[in-house]
Amino acid sequence: MTTNEIRTAFLEYMKQKGHAIVPSASLVPENDPTTLFTGSGMQPMVPYLLGQPHPLGKRIADSQKCFRAQDIEEVGDNRHLTSFEMLGNWSFGDYFKEEQITWMWDFLINELHLDVNNFYVSCFKGNDELHIPKDEFSLAVWKKLFKEKGLEVSAGENPEQDGMLPNQHVFYYGEKKNWWSRSGVPGNMPEGEPGGPDSEMFYDFDPQGEQKIHENSKWKNEPCHPNCDCGRFLEVGNNVFMQYKKTANGFEELPQMNVDHGSGLERFACALRNDPDIFNIDVYDEAKKLLVERSGKQYAEDEITTFAMRVILDHIRGATFLIGDGVMPGNKDQMYFVRRLIRRAVRFARNLGINESFTASVAKTFINTYKEEYPILHEKQDSIFSELEKEENKFRKTLEHGIKQFEKVATRNISGVDAFDLLQTYGFPIELTEELAKEKNISVDLEEFARLKKEHAESSRTAAQGKFKGGLGGDGEMEVKFHTATHMLHEALRQVLGEHVQQKGSNITSERLRFDFSHDAKMTDEEKKKVEDLINEQIAMKLPVIREEVSVDDARARGAIGLFGDKYGDVVSIYRIGEGTTRGDKNLFSMEFCGGPHVENIGTLGHFRIQKEEAVSTGVRRIKAVLE
User: Does this model's pTM top 0.85?
Assistant: First the structure.
C-alpha cells in the first residue's frame, strides 16, 4: 500500500466505526501562545478532551499534518522527521479501552496485514505510592487478541532490567513511558489535571538479530525490548486512555473517560515495507530521484550522501507545508524555523555537489505527491517556489562569505572558537569546516567546538522553554477577551483596508494580542485610527457573541470567514458578533469559523488600542494591541 492508501484506509475504517472525519488543522496553532507549531494530532483536540462538546459528536478521526522544530538536529538517521502526519481517533466520553485496542489490532493486523510476529505492545505498570493500579485490563485485551492468532504470549514485567524474554509480546512500563498528561508524570500533575495510562504499539524490524541494527545498544549481545532506543523497534502508535483526575485526595476516575489515539502515518508505511529507513517510503520517491539526478550520487552509497539526502528530503517537505500554511522564511518565531530548514537543506546539498538552485524543484515533487490530500499546496505553489528560491539564493551568498572567512582563519589549525563563529555568524556547518580543513591538512578543535555548541544549545533551550512551555493556551478571562478581540480586529481590517485581508496567524497572552494578516503596505496612522474607532464603537454598543453549529456550506453561504483547513467536516462552529445571521445584515458585525472560547458580550472588553503595526514578511503585516 502507498502512504496515501494507508491514510485513506485508516480514515475509512474509522468512518465505518462511527467517527466523523475532520480536516487537518493548520501547522500554526490558532490562538495558542504556548507553542509555535502543531506538533501532534491531539493538540487541536485538547478543548474537547477537557469537556467542550465537539460539533460533530463524540467520535472523531483525522490525519493531522505536524511539525516538530525540536527534532531538526536529529534528522539524518533512519527515523527522525520534523514534518510528518499523525493518524488519530478520539472518543469524547464514548467508547474506551476494549473497543480502541480491538480496533487498532483489527486495522493493523487484519486490514493492513502487519506481521503479528513482529508486533509488540506496552501497558502501564501502575504506581503503588499514588494508588494508581496496573492497567491489567488493557493487557488482558491484547493477550486475548494475540491468542486468537495462535500466539500464547506472556507479559514482560521488568523489560528495562531483564530485556525481552521468549514469547513476550506485551510489556509493562512505568509512568515515564506509559502515562500521559499535559504536565508529565502523575507526581507532577496539579489538582484538577486529567491524565491516564497509555498503551503503545511497536514493530520489530529485526526479530532474529541479523541486521545488526541494534549494534550500539547495551542489549547488543542479548535480546533488547520494545522501548529500547537501539533502532530495532519502532513505535508506530499510542493509545492514551484519559481515565483519571488529580484531586486533593489523590487520583479519581473521570466521569467522562476519553480515548486519544495517534499513530505516525509514515511509520505505518515503514512497518508495512518491513524497512526501518523511513526515507524509503513512497512519498519521498520522486524527490529522492531528483536528488540522485542532480548530484550523480545514489541514496545509500555512503554515510555522507545518505545523511545529506535525508536532511534535504525532510527539510524541504517541512518548508513546503509551512509556507503553504502561510509561514514565510524570516527571523522571528515560526518564520525562523522555515529559514533554518531551507538553509540546512542548502548546506547539505553542497555535500552532494548540488550548487545550483534546487529547492523549488524538490518542493514540486512533494506538491504533486500530496495534491489530492492537501490541495492548498498546489493552490499556493507559486508562493512556495518563490519563497524557497529567494531564501536559497540569499543563503548561497552567505555561504560564500563563510568560505572567505574560513580562508582567513585557515592559516593554522582551526580553534573551536573559530569553528563555532563560522557556524553562528556565517551559518557555516561544522562538517564543511572539517571538509575544507582536511583539504588543507589542518585540524579542527572539535572538542572545544562541541563544548561551545552545547553551552549555546542549553542557554537557547532555557530561553525557549521560558517562552514556549507547551500544552494548552491560557483560557483565563483576559485570554478569552483578547480572542474575541481578534475576531473584531479581523473584521475591522477588512472593512478599512479591503476584503483581501486574511488572518495569517495570531498569538494571545493575558497582556496583549498579536495578529498577522495579509496586506502589502504599511498602515497609515489614519487607517489605524479608523480600525480602533470601528472596534470601540461596536464595544460601546454591547453586542452579544453568539455561537452556532451549522453545516459548512451554510456557514460559507452566510459569509462566515476564518482560517480554513484543506478539507472540512459537515458541521462547524461559527461565532457571530451581533444579532444578524448573514454578512451584510446591519445587525451583524462579524462572523467567523472558530472553536472558541469567547466572551458573551463585547461590552466587557474595555477600550481597544493598537500598540504597534509592522512588517512580518513580504505581503504579511502584524498588529499588537491591548484592551484597557
Answer: no
